[in-house]
Amino acid sequence: MKEILTMDLKGKLLIAVVFMVLGFMLSVQYKATERQRSVRMDRVEDLSERLRSMESENKQLQLELETLRAGAAKDPADERMKLMAGTTDVEGTGIEILLDDSNIAKKSNENPNLYIIHDEDLLRVLNELRAAGAEAISLNDQRIVAMSEVRCAGPTISVNNVRSAPPYVIKAIGAPKTLSSALRLRGGVVETFEFWGIQVKIKTVEKLHIPALKSSRSFEYAKTVEGKEAAK
């Protein structure tokens, strides 16, 4: 009988120990889970704070970028560079010149090339307009800039690598009277053209539109010089 009671007591003690161990393990597991949850929450809060900070910085950078763009758009030096490079459309008062080959009868013993417009004739007109202060020029809607070529290409004229045939329309923005007078000087361009029967018509236009340069050129050899080197 005593042995049975002893075994029963041992069994109860064993069960109690098992429950204690299970309780301890559950307690440890619960604490570990809570700790992990706390760590995750801390990480979420940290990431949320970082995200808010980055969003704030992004907004600030966007504002600075817009300010810089607005300042660049209003920079007179930048506008002047665009005008000189011909990278933007322009409008203004100026003159329009129409040039066409001669329509007079040619003598059989005369050179027919004397009665048609050549690249050198167009270059003379362009140079006179530049010297008279033209601020923007186009030839058959091709913007004329410092690096524009005007050369003979068979029966046509190549301007910015685009071929054109007569009649040639030259537009120039500037003081109309000054530009027109420069072409009509005694012994000048217009008088020479009229001698050979080249057709010339010049008119003043209050609102002349000149398009931007349609092509761009890359620079392989020319490099910009900055700082002290530029001052030498």
From TrEMBL:
Family label: Belongs to the UPF0749 family.
Keyword Transmembrane helix: yes
Annotated TM spans: 12-30
Coiled coil: 44-71
Designated name of the protein: Division initiation protein
Keyword Coiled coil attached: yes
Native source organism of the sequence: Phascolarctobacterium succinatutens CAG:287
Alphabetized PANTHER family for the sequence: UPF0749 PROTEIN RV1825, UPF0749 PROTEIN YLXX
Keywords: Coiled coil, Membrane, Transmembrane, Transmembrane helix
